[in-house]
Amino acid sequence: TIEFVRATQLQGDEEPSAPPVPNQAQQKESIQAVRRSLPVFPFREELLAAIANHQVLIIEGETGSGKTTQIPQYLFEEGYTKKSMKIACTQPRRVAAMSVAARVAREMGVKLGNEVGYSIRFEDCTSERTVLRYMTDGMLLREFLSEPDLASYRVVMVDEAHERTLHTDILFGLIKDVARFRPELKVLVASATLDTARFSTFFDDAPVFRIPGRRFPVDIFYTKAPEADYLEACVVSVLQIHVTQPPGDILVFLTGQEEIEAACEMLQDRCRRLGSKIRELLVLPIYANLPSDMQARIFQPTPPGARKVVVATNIAETSLTIEGIIYVLDPGFCKQKSYNPRTGMESLTVTPCSKASANQRAGRAGRVAAGKCFRLYTAWAYQHELEETTVPEIQRTSLGNVVLLLKSLGIHDLMHFDFLDPPPYETLLLALEQLYALGALNHLGELTTSGRKMAELPVDPMLSKMILASEKYSCSEEILTVAAMLSVNNSIFYRPKDKVVHADNARVNFFLPGGDHLVLLNVYTQWAESGYSSQWCYENFVQFRSMRRARDVREQLEGLLERVEVGLSSCQGDYIRVRKAITAGYFYHTARLTRSGYRTVKQQQTVFIHPNSSLFEEQPRWLLYHELVLTTKEFMRQVLEIESSWLLEVAPHYYKAKELEDPHAKKMPKKTGKTREELG
Ligand code: ADP
Ligand code: MG
User: Fold this and answer.
1) 462-491 tens-digit pLDDT
2) Of 38, 116, 321, which is best to mutate to test ligand 1, by the most ligand atoms within 8 angstroms of its C-beta?
3) Counting CB atoms within 10 angstroms of each CB, which of 98, 175, 185, 320 has the fewest?
4) What number is the ipTM of this complex?
5) CA of 409 to the centre of ligand 2 (A)
6) Is the pLDDT reported for residue 163 higher than 80?
7) Smallest-distance ligand from the CA of 37
8) How many Å lie between the centroid of ligand 1 and the Cα of residue 248?
9) Residues forming a β-bridge with 29
């Protein structure tokens, strides 16, 4: 067991003894009655009046008050979509955009994709008729490319503004500008937290509309001592809550798919072993890549007598509201991007979440009745180790993508762009340098023809460069596949706990000399040859859903080839050409083997091949990687063996022959002789 101590209480707006809000999902009442029960409903008229009277309105309200699902509907009912004018509502997360759009379509009694739809990268569920458009913030950003003044939009609602994602932050600057030229455009900025003053100031002191909260108090508990293994601690605590606490569902915050799947498996495993000694516990995961039918399950009411535990990423912090949660279990971590502008290295790391985040999470326990939040860290750690708020993404990510987009929109002077919080100067500079090296910008910082094409493709600049380069190496068929497979990254292979050996063997069977990109290509090609069969996936421990998604992405990219003047062609098995095309995009991400292991070529950073890589034991002298992931070490994920001479071929302006000389060439052992276990 884990010992928790009760320390503080998150104040509620309701008395702890007040009767609990009926669990809406379990109510037999009509969907309209549920709508009327939401905190925003009594303010409908007042809100619509405020929107009518102001061009920009900041809306602040507790999560679950109905901002996302109700306000666009109010606007629709009020006639804002007359003459086919559209309403955009942006979400930082794909899952949220899909899920709320589905919910709103149901509330309005229309088919998803008709009046209400969503649009996320590589998936467009909208039609000519779609006037309520839920979309990721990144998609609205791309809308500017085809419609710089957003002329077909009557209202833009930037939702979840407190998340301060890179795309949301950039949207702020662009929308503020458009609003000046289009006085009839309504701008709503919706946020769950109290940080709305910043938004108001940014939008020339726009008024703030507050939707009063309705939250019960939440008792906060901390562990007595730090927990070494928070995953294990999570599982133990969930069972502890299940056995000792009165009815009410549990929400657990973990950092990503792998962790969530592991936790769910552990929980199911232990429940099975406890058998009828405990009441039924429904274990439900929710994360970005979860298929939508599985996502929908978290919203289904818990059967009487049972308890539901939802194991979620940050998505459940503010983007999604699940009814019936009374207990929150918070290990205090989230996965965060970090970026070092000095080295140009971006990595995804599990880091402690902020206090603001921890309190949002705790708040999720008090929606229907007084709740409890169990934090898997000490009160001291909360006080002394957590940051107050999360640093906005714009200050901890690479900006290549965004700079390319802004340049395509004709915004040249990026230093003076209207940022809510400006990115570090070095990061901007490095983005410009990288785009120059990729040939997207000329020496004056102007967009080149190639840069214009790169901006057309909805992928990172390096990936678009790789696709463009496939023209030169006549291998666009293969490169499209590689690009598609890379974008469903890390969810291709299935590795069930009880069949680890079989699964690993199946994976090794796909290995091809050259590296992981070719392995991905191999998996896809064989799958295509099987007639895109699900049975084939099952037999080869490949995730059918990921493959299906890769196929979708591939089709969409293929559809864009003509626009960027790349013809379809195949390398006919000459994989050197494929590898060169990949190198043409990723020459920034290269490493060489030195006597002390791998070092990145330019910055001399120490890096390691991920143990899952097909090249883990090969240890080639030169390689490129798709991405870096920092766990225990800085791991390169998806690596490809290259030759140093290719770097001179694909990026002569970036590499000089001298820096690619290999002084230890003769002394290098080909293999280190160590096993996976020793190194991993
Ligand atoms: P906010 O944006 O203010 O956080 P929402 O509009 O997302 O609030 O949520 C309002 C209500 O709609 C919540 O009570 C939530 O439970 C419900 N809801 C949202 N999405 C779904 C869904 N997919 N299924 C069932 N209920 C949902
Ligand atoms: Mg919302």
Assistant:
1) 999 999 999 999 999 999 999 999 988 677
2) 321
3) 185
4) 0.98
5) 29
6) yes
7) 1
8) 18
9) none
